[in-house]
Amino acid sequence: MKREKSTMSQYMSQAQVSNEPEAPDTSALKVCSDDQTNVFVTAALDTVGRLVELEFKHTIVPVFLLKILTLCIPFQQNLNKLTIQSCPISDKAICEISTFLPQSQITEICFDESPLPTCNYGLLLERQTQLKSLSLNRCCIDDSDCSDIVAKLAYPAPSCRSLTILSLASNFITDKGGLDISSMLRTNRSLRYLNLSGNHITDTGAFSIFSCLMKFPLTPEEINTKRVRNLQYLKSYREVYEKCYKDIITSFNEKAFDDRSGGRKRITQRRSTIAVAVTPGHGAVADAAFKAEAMTIDIIGRNDDPFSNNDTHYLNGYLYCNGNMSLAYLDMSFNKMSHLSIVKLVEVMRYQESSLRKSEYGLIRVVMDGNLLPAASVHLDQLQELIERATFRRLEGPLNKSEKKINRKR
Q1: Peptide bond before 156: cis, by omega within 30 degrees of 0?
Q2: % helix, strand, coil for the chain, step of 5
Q3: Distance between CA 281 and CA 256 in Å, rounded?
Q4: Pick from 36, 48, 208, 250: most CB atoms within 10 A?
Q5: Is the separation of the CB atoms in 139 and 165 below 8 Å?
Q6: Cα(129)–Cα(144) distance, rounded to whole angstroms?
């Protein structure tokens, strides 16, 4: 969606390095450099004149200009989109962007048709940022590059909680990349939109991706990792809780002492002795415990482990995890899948429809155009009906139990 360009006012900055005079009808900026190349940057402003977007298109992106941008980022808190489209960029440029990204408020980055020599796009996801959307369409990404990118989105990596949109359309991703994407989706619960159109994924890769959208058994490694994470969280929770509780009780004792002394000043040593002797009542202790718990959650957050006890259960002696219900949009068009993928997808949609919990929606849009599919089939009709019902649920809100029973009867 295109932003309003502040009454569509766009500033074209031209970095000129030649000694020729500037054209009178061009708003230009002359920058000293060794080469003789013009750099065009489009800056979009909002209605009150604040910078909201920078766009490089069909031009070079010099590192020195990104270094200047790094210095300006702290003063441009409304800049939320960076577009570098159809531009030759270097590894140094991507390193510079990854340096200023954590300090910025940028939520959307587009690198469409701007392949890196080493495809090291994973640098953008290594640290905690505000990034929510990353578009890497037509960037010559292969399975190895895909593996590096999605590894940065697996729990508990910093970017696994922030990125909601990932577009990898028209690249060279095969079934191996599909398997890595599936591994990421087993633990990522923030990604909502995934575009894999125009790649080379067959039924094998599609089955891998679809399998994590249904309940799946945990591997021994995942079980061990889950236990370690839970122990680490409980240890951290206990340490923070005890500190918060102690601070609250100390504050209560000091307040109680001040109330009893009528506000008169005492010697510090005597005050401390008497304060320790003050014993809070049962109500005060309960209140302190409640406040300490709230403070602890505020500091370390809730345990959002994807393999938590609420999301896992034992079945026939194996530990299973509920399917990924966070992914809402999946584009698998123009790959190499057959009708078998449609059959599997129908199974996925039925599982999600019967297993949704409150505030969950599951898949509401799946695009399969351009694959080796029949013109018409029973499973295609079933898939269309399931998608329509999923869309209706999203518009109407989460279903209650009685509504779910009615849908199952249908």
Answers
A1: yes
A2: 45, 15, 40
A3: 11
A4: 208
A5: no
A6: 24
| Number of residues written out for the chain | 410
**Residue 127: both structure tokens together:** 């640290």
Decide if 229 contacts 156 (C-beta within 8 A): yes
The tally of domains found in the chain comes to 1
Task: State the residue for tokens 């599919």.
Answer: 373
Q: Is residue 372 assigned to a domain?
A: no
CA 172 – CA 170 distance, rounded (Å): 7
**Nearest one of 114, 155, 157, 156 to 134, comparing CA atoms:** 114
**Domain-embedded: residue 285:** yes
227 Cβ contact partners less than 8 Å away, ≥ 6 residues apart: none
Residue 98 lies in a domain: no
User: Is the full-model pTM beyond 0.90?
Assistant: no
Token pair of 94, please? 């991507």
Compute the C-alpha angle 376/378/379, nearest 5°: 95
pLDDT digits (tens, 9 = 90+) for 336-359: 999 999 999 999 999 999 998 888
Is 122 inside any structural domain?
A: no
| DSSP symbols for 90-135 | -HHHHHHHHHHGGGS---EEE-TT---SS--GGGGGSS-----EEE
CB 137 within 8 A of CB 113: yes
Domain range holding 290? Answer: 220-300
For the chain, which residues score pLDDT lower than 50?
A: 1-34, 265, 267-278, 399, 401-403, 405-406, 409-410
